[in-house]
Design goal:
mainly alpha, 9 helices, 195 residues, Rna Polymerase Sigma Factor, Chain: A, single chain, globular
Length: 195
């Protein structure tokens, strides 16, 4: 019940914004900024462009708010914009992956770990994150997006299908292939005890 009210509130807010109520957009931004940032971060990895792409998503929402017809939930609409922004980014800019050692070292510098962790624990955690990110980056774009939306964002297959504009059976297929690929990529690290 609460979830339904939350989404109804989103639709009401976007209508208010289209009617020139800037505070409604500010509230939508507050509700979705961290969620969209997390999606973008998980898709492109720990790159400085994450914040910029998140801002791009909200600029697109701001500029195209009048095109929201209410045929789907606002959350579906904004996630679709975010997914398309990520996919377009990857098409325009092919990033060269850093080696695991280099990216692991970089992640250690960026981590803010609790005082109780040792530098070795911090490095181990950073290395695991780098290995997982590299495995995610090995996935084709649609598999990667479907996996992130399912595993990290908690969307149902039907919601993912709506966001990605594909059928539920396509979502099932994308997730099956993504899990197969991730298993293949991560098994060698599990066998040597790094995961």
């Amino acid at each position: 019940m609460v979830k339904t009210l939350f989404h109804e509130d989103d639709e009401f807010l976007i209508k208010r914004f289209v009617s020139n109520d800037e505070s409604a957009f500010e509230e939508l931004f507050r509700r979705y900024e961290q969620k969209i940032f997390n999606l973008v971060y998980r898709y492109i990895g720990p790159y400085p462009e994450t914040e910029e792409l998140t801002q791009d998503v909200f600029i697109k929402v701001y500029k195209s708010a009048q095109t929201f017809k209410g045929k789907s939930k606002f959350s579906t609409w904004i996630y679709r914009i975010a997914v398309n922004t990520c996919l377009n980014y990857k098409k325009k800019k092919r990033l060269v992956m850093e080696s695991l050692d280099k990216s692991g070292t970089q992640l250690v510098k960026e981590l803010v770990a609790p005082d109780s962790t040792t530098p070795e624990e911090q490095f181990t955690r950073a290395r695991k994150m780098a290995i997982i990110q590299q495995a995610l980056d090995s996935l084709p774009p649609n598999q990667k997006i479907a996996f992130i939306l399912s595993k990290y964002e908690g969307f149902s297959y039907a919601e993912i299908g709506e966001i990605m504009n594909v059928s539920i059976s396509s979502v099932e297929s994308l997730l099956f292939r993504a899990k197969q690929q991730l298993k293949k990529e991560l098994t060698p690290y599990k066998e040597i005890g790094e995961l």
